[in-house]
Design goal:
The structure is a single chain. The longest helix has 29 residues, at 77-105. β1 (160-162) and β2 form a beta hairpin. The chain has three domains: 7-147 and 194-263, Cation efflux protein transmembrane domain (Alpha-lytic protease prodomain-like, Up-down Bundle); 153-181 and 266-353, Alpha-Beta Plaits (2-Layer Sandwich), CATH 3.30.70; 372-571, Porin (Beta Barrel), CATH 2.40.160. It is an alpha+beta fold. The strands form three sheets. The protein has a twelve-stranded antiparallel barrel. It has a five-stranded mixed sheet with strand order 1-2-5-4-3, with helices on one face. The two termini are 64 Å apart. The chain is elongated, with a radius of gyration of 33 Å. It has helices spanning 7-32, 35-61, 77-105, 113-140, 187-190, 199-227, 236-263, 273-281, 315-331, 492-495, 557-571, and strands at 160-162, 165-168, 286-296, 302-310, 336-342, 355-356, 362-363, 387-394, 402-407, 412-417, 426-431, 436-442, 450-453, 462-468, 477-482, 496-504, 510-515, 518-525, 547-551.
Length: 577
């Protein structure tokens, strides 16, 4: 017969044990004059209060009908109890520490040290019993001792929609293309450090383990005072009480910090607000993201809300887009998300992606607004409007590290193939008709790593050179070129320019192509065209994903494609031939 004791029953038993011992210990402490016993007794009093708070939190949490004012029910009751418990412990630690200093200055003789030692032994034994109660609870409820919580199991089953505000809770995948699409971040990013051992119970457990150490200190102090003959033996009592005070302080601070941060609605550990915002803005169809809020309801559940500025106002398109957004949030361990769509005309672009230029006009991420200088490797493919392309890897007879570039209609615009920089060979770029455009070479040297030449002119005129940049994130580099779109100008600065490529993101790997203070292109792992993201757990290091490329007006498409291929080879690697 498997007899199972509930959590409330266990806490009740621990409260009974601690209360009985508190009465005995405080009485013996005042009788013998031992500050260590008195300090330990008041620590027990703090424990009792903490246990009562945890018991009350567990009791109210089981209520089926919380007050209507508590829209989340009692899910934060244990957090409040843990915070209160930590503050109480901290105040007690300060008090005992000050009393210990006073006892060092004014030393008092301890009567009957043998009794002090006996009480310490009894307290140690009772604490071990309490630990077994809570330890059994920990396994009985399926929590375990791994201090990490895998969010992947926590997927509510329903998606709620009301008007234009969508709450996405389900693990739906966009367009049926992501059946095997799994997001996994580094454990430090998706798993709260407090883990399955919830904060309220963790506070109780810390108390009892601290009490065991305190009891050992009381036993040692009793033995020293009882068996030693020198006059300084009575300093053992305030020394132990000071050690107890320090232990109380150090055990209370982490509890206050962790529970306090959640009560302040902080983001989950390892989740950076800007990373999430950047990843969302890379999803095709989303122009900008603002009013993004991420917070923890408790130590196991995280919530988020965001306003999405969409490229179009189609409701059906938004609901499809919401599924992709939901999947991105899932990768960060956030499974309850509220989204509000906004049209491009209904929201000022300055809310998230604009900057004010000197003439007072506004320029968004697409570069529209103030006239910007054109940028080109060759003048044949300069864009007149915003262009979106898909860079897809494929294998051909010459190389398994080949690429095709298609527009939104699925028409091939460019191809890039050839041996991957082996033995002085290169990758050749061709247009849709097969006409050679230029060649990209790999050249390991101090000054440059990549260089671009005209077809068949490896040792001749160099159109552009590229080199890695020293930056915290691997995959940052720069491209220097003679601007073919500025050949008529007499300014040397206008003829030669350097594009900076910055890598971003944790879930979606992406790159910004920057000219001075403006972003001329975005390159990002495609959510719609990949079964899984290239750098997630379990992916091959050499897996090359499809990339979404968005190019602003006045920029050479072929140049940005070359930059995108360099970025792909640098970060994702490629299957070498």
């Amino acid at each position: 017969m498997n007899f199972k004791i509930s959590r409330i029953q266990r806490l009740s038993a621990v409260i009974g044990i601690s209360t009985s011992f508190f009465i005995a210990e405080i009485a013996v402490g005042f009788y013998t004059g031992s500050l260590a016993l008195v300090a330990d007794a008041f620590h027990y009093l703090s424990d009792i209060v903490g246990f009562v708070v945890a018991l009350a939190a567990a009791t109210v949490e089981q209520k089926s009908s919380p007050p209507q004012a508590l829209t989340f029910g009692w899910q934060r009751s244990q957090l409040v109890g843990a915070f209160f418990n930590g503050v109480l412990l901290f105040g007690l630690g300060i008090s005992v520490f000050l009393q210990s200093i006073e006892r060092f200055i004014k030393l008092e003789k301890i009567e009957q040290p043998k009794l002090v030692m006996i009480i310490g032994c009894v307290g140690f034994g009772l604490n071990l019993i309490s630990v077994m109660f809570l330890h059994e609870h920990d396994h009985g409820d399926g929590h375990g001792h791994s201090h990490g919580h895998d969010y992947a199991h926590e997927h509510p089953e329903h998606e709620q929609e009301r008007g234009h505000v969508t709450n996405t809770n389900s693990s739906v995948l966009s367009d049926g293309k992501h059946a095997h699409h799994k997001h996994y971040l580094n454990a430090s990013a998706t798993k709260p450090k407090t883990g399955n051992f919830d904060l309220a119970l963790m506070g109780v457990f810390i108390h009892i383990m601290g009490d065991c150490a305190n009891n050992l200190g009381v036993i040692i102090a009793g033995l020293v005072i009882w068996l030693a003959d020198y006059g300084g033996r009575y300093y053992a009592d305030p020394a132990v009480s000071m050690a107890i005070a320090i232990m109380i302080l150090f055990s209370s601070l982490p509890l206050i910090k962790r529970s306090g941060l959640i009560l302040l609605q902080s983001a989950p550990d390892g989740v950076e607000h800007e990373d999430v915002k950047h990843d969302l803005e890379q999803i095709p169809g989303i122009r900008a993201v603002h009013e993004l809020h991420i917070w923890r309801l408790n130590q196991k559940k995280s919530l988020a809300s965001a306003h999405l500025v969409l490229e179009n106002d189609d409701d059906l398109e938004f609901h499809k887009l919401a599924k992709t957004v939901n999947e991105c949030f899932h990768a960060y361990g956030i499974h309850s998300v509220t989204l509000q769509p906004e049209s491009r005309t209904g929201v000022k672009k300055a809310t998230s992606v604009t900057r004010v230029v000197s003439q007072g006009s506004e320029e968004g991420a697409d570069g529209q607004g103030e006239q910007q200088r054109p940028i080109a490797l060759r003048q044949d493919y300069i864009t007149s409007s915003k262009i979106s392309l898909i860079l897809s890897p494929y294998g051909d007879a010459q190389s398994v590290a080949a690429y095709k570039v298609k527009d939104r209609d699925g028409q091939t615009v460019f191809t890039a193939s050839g041996w991957k920089y082996n033995g002085g060979s290169c990758r050749g770029f061709r247009d849709a008709s097969g006409l050679p455009l230029f060649e990209l070479h790999r050249n390991i040297s101090i000054r440059s790593t990549w260089y671009i030449t005209l077809p068949g002119d490896e040792r001749g005129f160099t159109l552009a050179t590229g080199a890695p940049r020293f930056a915290p994130a691997f995959g940052n580099f720069s491209i220097t070129l003679n601007n073919a779109a500025a050949m008529d100008t007499k300014s040397v600065a206008e003829k030669e320019l350097t594009l900076v490529i910055e890598r971003h993101g944790h879930v979606l790997q992406s790159f910004d192509v920057i000219d001075g203070d403006r972003r001329v292109a975005d390159v990002c792992e495609s959510v719609r065209h990949n079964d899984k993201l290239a750098l997630t757990a379990g992916s091959r290091r050499t897996h090359r994903p499809a990339l979404d490329i968005v190019i602003t007006p006045g920029v050479d498409m072929a140049l940005i494609v070359a930059v995108s291929i360099i970025a792909s080879d640098s970060v994702f690697g490629s299957d070498s031939s």
